[in-house]
Amino acid sequence: MKCSAPNTAPTASRGRPREFDPDEALSAALRVFWTRGYEGASMAELTEAMGITKPSLYACFGNKEALFKKALDLYERDKMAYIGKALEAPTARGVAERLLNGALATHCGTSDPHGCLGVISAVACAEDDSIRAHVIARRIASEEAVAVRFKRAQAEGDLPDSVNASALAGCLTTVLQGMSVKAQGCVCPTELQGTVDTFLSMWPSR
Questions:
Q1: What digits encode the pLDDT tens for the residues 20-51?
Q2: I need a surface site. Which of 83, 86, 127, 173 has the fewest CB within 10 A?
Q3: CATH code of domain 19-67
Q4: 80-136, pLDDT tens digit by residue?
């Protein structure tokens, strides 16, 4: 798919509108949002990184909010794919281990900005309640999916009945989000690996 940038030149010099790859432009926008958060990312920064004009951005992606939601979709599909794989682990502890190590690799890697886009945007959105609510709703949906998986683990005898599956999923989410905040603050991966190992060492046994 190609999007055409509006041609604003005089009629005499009009030609075929310049085209750009929306997938590449969206990837560039994602990186800006991931680095700056929703409110911190200015339209000037976004259009410069995407290599397009503001009219082109509006024509292809809609407004800034719509662009951000598309960037979130891309982020979840490409950068958070480990979540779906984690839920397929044969044990509840395996789910937690895959989630924690996946977050560590994603949020502390060398090729992408550090931290979690959702956490960064939810914490930094002081003025845009709709974006904050949207990000939180996605986080809640993810946490509920983990809770459902843990409840299944209980039914299979993998987790003791004394464990509150929803509370355990919430605890895991809290650790994951805390790791993201620390990663954004450039805490070394070795320290965060210690967090992963400590959390797993406290996992409720059958």
A1: 789 999 999 999 999 888 888 999 999 999 99
A2: 127
A3: 1.10.10.60
A4: 999 999 999 999 999 999 999 999 988 887 778 888 888 877 765 556 678 888 888
Angle at 145 between CA 140 and CA 148, to 5 degrees: 125
Distance CA 81, CA 78 (A): 6
Closest CA relative to residue 33, chosen from 23, 21, 45 = 45
Cβ burial of 152 (10 Å; 0-12, 13-18, 19+) is middle
Nearest to 191 by CA among 130, 112, 108, 106: 108
C-alpha to C-alpha distance for 172 and 147, rounded to whole angstroms:
10
First-to-last CA distance in the chain?
A: 52
Token code pair at residue 167: 């509370």
* Rounded Cα gap, residues 189 and 199, in angstroms: 15
Helix (H) or strand (E) holding 31: helix 22-40
Q: Are 5 and 53 in contact (CB under 8 A)?
A: yes
3-state secondary structure 121-165: HHHHCCCCHHHHHHHHHHHHHHHHHHHHHHHHHHHCCCCCCCCCH
Angle between helices 43-50 and 54-61 (to 10 degrees): 80
pTM of the predicted model over 0.85: no
CATH code at 80-201: 1.10.357.10
Domain ranges of the chain: 19-67, 80-201
